Amino acid sequence: MRRLRHPGPEAAERAAVVACRAFPLSLDLGAGESVNAALTGALARAGFASGFARLDGLALSPLRYVIPAPSPDDAHVAWYSATHAPDGVAIVEKAGAIVGIRDGEPFIHCHGVWRQEDGARRAGHLLPHETAMVRGGRVAAWGIAGAGFVARDDAETNFKLFAAEPADTGTLQGEGGLPALACTVRPNGDIAQALEAACRANGLEDADIFGIGSLAGVDFTDGRHVVSYATEVTVDAGQVRREGETAACALDVALVDMDGAVHEGRLVRGRNPVCVTFEVLAVARRDS
């Protein structure tokens, strides 16, 4: 399997996994605010500091985003492009956002696919403070209690990355919700196998997967291969399901490569290593 060499020492722990409770939410986001302020504010009003949201259908203007790019030096294995700033209103087709805390303030990490006003279908890493809601919208989300996503300086990758950590967060702590895992996965391990291991170790082998991250090249089950060694990925549909004595992870994703091309499909298990990080909320299936 492909392997990238990051600038810092390899951490012994290859994934952070925290058991928590997840609460389904429907959040109303107001017009005129940045996406960061609108989403984190709505989640906070629901009583949560961390969680996950789907931003499908939102109308954004201005839209500001970046795509993966080669690093200009040896400080990182990959970097970001110049900011893309299309004119007009963009409509989000599919996007996922992990919500947490960065530098003591609410922050979202968002990857997605959108249709720009000129008709172009593009994807990337949304810049949440620079992108705004042009009109209000409702999004599906999960708030989590008992865990949080907190941005920490990471010596291995030399990025500041969300880390899943135990947290006394969520006003609904201990009052219902579904069993869940907050997970952050380190580079070079296959993402499906990492999530299988996390769910198996925590007795959560029938779960839906929500999240975003980056992969070092991509292999799809239909035989397509994306050569880009850095990609920005959103999970379109994901699950871990019990199959006999084991649990298997299936991930349908959308992603952008270093040339700006959008790719979609199901990942081949065992052949899709994490590039920099993958941030996931695994939630017990409601009818399991």
What secondary-structure arrangement, pairings included, does this model have?
Layout: E1 15-29, H1 35-45, E2 51-54, E3 59-60, E4 65-66, E5 68-69, E6 79-80, E7 90-102, E8 105-115, E9 121-126, E10 137-153, E11 160-167, E12 178-185, H2 191-201, E13 207-215, E14 218-219, E15 225-226, E16 232-243, E17 246-256, E18 262-266, E19 274-284
Antiparallel strand pairs: 1-10, 1-12, 2-7, 2-10, 3-7, 4-9, 5-6, 7-8, 8-9, 10-11, 12-19, 13-16, 13-19, 14-15, 16-17, 17-18
State the name of the first-level CATH class of the largest domain: Alpha Beta
User: Considering the protein shown, what is the CATH homologous superfamily of the largest domain?
Assistant: Hypothetical protein, similar to alpha- acetolactate decarboxylase, domain 2
Major sheet: 15 strands, antiparallel
Question: Percentage of helical residues?
Answer: under 10%
Class by SSE composition: mainly beta
Mean pLDDT: 95
Using the CA coordinates, give the radius of gyration: 18 Å
**Total helical elements:** 2
